[in-house]
Amino acid sequence: MSTLHTINKSPSDNTLWQSCLAALLPGDALLMIENAAYAAAQPSVMTQLQEYDIDIYLLSADVDARGLSGKLYTNANIIDDQQFVTLACQHTKVVSWF
Amino acid sequence: MQSKSILLILSHAPYGDTRAKEALDLALTAAAFGQDVSLLFTQDALYLLLKSQQPQAIEQKNLANICSALPMYDIDKIYIENNTSQTKHITAEQLILPGVFVNHNQIALMIRDHDVVLRF
Amino acid sequence: MRHITIADKDLTLDDEGYLLDLTDWSEAVAEYLSNEEQIQLTDAHWEIIHVIRDFYRQYELSPAMRPLVKAVGITLGDDKGKSIYLMKLFPQSPAKQAAKLAGLPKPTNCL
Amino acid sequence: MIFSILIYGSAHNSQSVHTAYRFAKSLLAAGHTLHRVFFYGESVYTASALCAPPRDEQDIHQLWKSLAETHQLDLVVCIAAALKRGVIDQAEAQRHEKPAFNTHAPYELSGLGQLSEAAIISDRLVTFGA
């Protein structure tokens, strides 16, 4: 019983991020897609995320597109599209924050 | 047809864009198909429930009226994000429908406990 | 689209026979449309037509079957608030036919 | 595993329709089933065959069309959302007496009930939002 959350906006969308973070439960996973990839380049956001007992993922396509691969402040897992599908299978549902 | 529990989380205000209206359409359809639908009003979606809406001049349907039809579609599980109603200074008497006020913890558990969760 | 004249008034129906302009509705229009649907309007039909028009006024929606049954039950009593009762009056599809005769848009929450 | 995809993001003003496309390709490659793709909201513009992006830019209509044709996908476009935005097939154009139509197979206009059904049938319903 765990949820894969996806979020697709940069942390500048504060309301969206607060709602998403409030919904996380231990054992959930958070996949930051599209502009949410920018979160991984912001130390304050990543520090905040460390308080949650969750796994954090990024899509390599989004990271590369945005030129972020050398700028990541975290050991968030960078995965490919195939692994996105695997994650969706491993969790009982996928909830999208957009 | 088997049934799944569906939680629809609304987060957008009426009228400014079509997101709230399209989410309500989805709720009504799923309920008309016999699905077990729960609705959670968060953030600006709380404004959907304000009784005092009068959208005639902007030529839109009154979304409060449509919300008031939810019980007729057997959507009786209506939840309102506690924090939202406090920050917006909206009281239960100003709403077209009664709802159960829930906090962030309860929302996290609701997301866990439903089969399908869609957020608009 | 189809143009018809009822009581010296020109009206337009859409492809499926629903009234295009809701404000054109009158009881004479309902009589005309009921002929097209091969329904002989009785008091029992009129009761339902009034319930569905009230539903639309209140909620701005043409009801799907379940809410229609519920509304009929609330207004006219539990013995009439049953799909089997409505099916007898509007054999094709109660939600669609009653909406049509009442001058309302086709319910969107159908397939 | 049986997947369905709900796309709600704008066809031309968000990345989401393409992210959904990549997800669809990957799940098919992994041997899963894609029961249905449902286009709702602004994503219905994906179904317009009249989109003509510059030849060296992404053509999202064509990408989904090719994938659907290769894998026999069920691409359902919400009929209410589509018609009000002017995305219309031949049958609906006739019904509403419109002068032209702009969508056809593999895109198919149908009701929100198709999304409801997909939610029940599928093990996972994944949304790609605005």
CATH superfamily of chain D: DsrEFH-like
For the largest beta-sheet of chain D, the strand count, sense and barrel status come to: 5 strands, parallel
Q: Which descriptor suits the 3D outline of chain D?
A: globular
Largest interface: chains, residues each: A-D, 18 and 23 residues
Helical region count of chain D?
Answer: 5
> What is the CATH architecture term of chain A?
3-Layer(aba) Sandwich
- Quaternary structure: heterotetramer
Summing up helix and strand content along with how strands pair, one would put the structural category of chain D as alpha/beta
* CATH domain class of chain D: Alpha Beta
CATH class of chain A, please?
A: Alpha Beta
Determine the strand fraction of chain A and express it as a percent band: 15-25%
Q: What count of domains describes the coordinates of chain A? A: 1
Number of strands of chain D: 5
Which strand order do you get reading across the main beta sheet of chain D? 4-3-2-1-5
Mean pLDDT of chain A: 96
Strand fraction of chain D? 15-25%
Write a structural description:
Chain A has a single domain (3-97), classed as DsrEFH-like (Hypothetical Protein Ychn, Chain: A), CATH 3.40.1260.10. Chain A contains four helices and five strands; from the N terminus they run βαβαβαβαβ. Chain A has helices at 14-22, 43-49, 60-65, 81-90, and strands spanning 3-7, 29-32, 55-59, 77-79, 93-97. The mean pLDDT of chain A is 96. In chain B, strands 4-3-2-1-5 form a five-stranded parallel β-sheet. Chain C folds into two domains: 2-36, 2-Layer Sandwich (Dissimilatory Siroheme-sulfite Reductase, Chain: A, domain 1); 43-101, Arc Repressor Mutant, subunit A (Orthogonal Bundle). Chain C is built from five helices and two strands; from the N terminus they run ββααααα. Chain C has a two-stranded antiparallel sheet with strand order 1-2. In chain C, β1 and β2 form a beta hairpin. The radius of gyration of chain C is 13 Å and the shape is globular. Helices cover 36% and strands 20% of the residues of chain D. In chain D, α1 packs parallel to α2 (60-71). Chains in contact: A-B, A-D, B-C, B-D, C-D. At the A-D interface, α4 and β5 of A face α1 and β5 of D.
Précis, in short:
The complex is a heterotetramer of chains A (98), B (120), C (111) and D (130). Chain B is an alpha/beta fold and 120 residues long.
Topology of helices and strands:
The complex is a heterotetramer of chains A (98), B (120), C (111) and D (130).
Chain A: E1 3-7, H1 14-22, E2 29-32, H2 43-49, E3 55-59, H3 60-65, E4 77-79, H4 81-90, E5 93-97
Parallel strand pairs in A: 1-2, 1-5, 2-3, 3-4
Chain B: E1 5-10, H1 19-32, E2 36-41, H2 63-68, E3 77-81, H3 82-87, E4 100-102, H4 104-113, E5 116-119
Parallel strand pairs in B: 1-2, 1-5, 2-3, 3-4
Chain C: E1 2-6, E2 9-13, H1 27-36, H2 43-59, H3 65-76, H4 83-89, H5 94-101
Antiparallel strand pairs in C: 1-2
